[in-house]
Amino acid sequence: MYDSLTELIEKIYLGEDATIEFKRALPHRNSLADEVAAFANARGGVILIGVDDNGEIVGVDRQKLDAAEKAVVEICQDSIDPIVLIFTEKLRIDDKNLLKIEVPRSLFVHKTSNGYFIRQGSSKREMPTEQLARLFQTRSQARIIAFDEQFVPNTDKDTLRQDLYQRFITEGATDDEIEDLLLKRHLLVKEGNQNRASVAGVLMCHEKPDDYLYNSFIQAVFYISKEKDADHQLDAQDFKGPLDQQIIHTMRFVKRYNAVAARKDIGRIDYPEYSMRAVFEAIVNAVVHRDYSKTGSKIRLFMFDDRLELYSPGALANTVTVDNLRYSQATRNELLARLLSEITLDDDMGRQVSRRHFLERRGEGVGIILNESEALSGKTPEYEMFDEELRLTIFAAEPPHETEE
Question: Could you tell me which of 124, 112, 118, 102 has the C-alpha nearest to residue 48?
Answer without folding.
Answer: 102
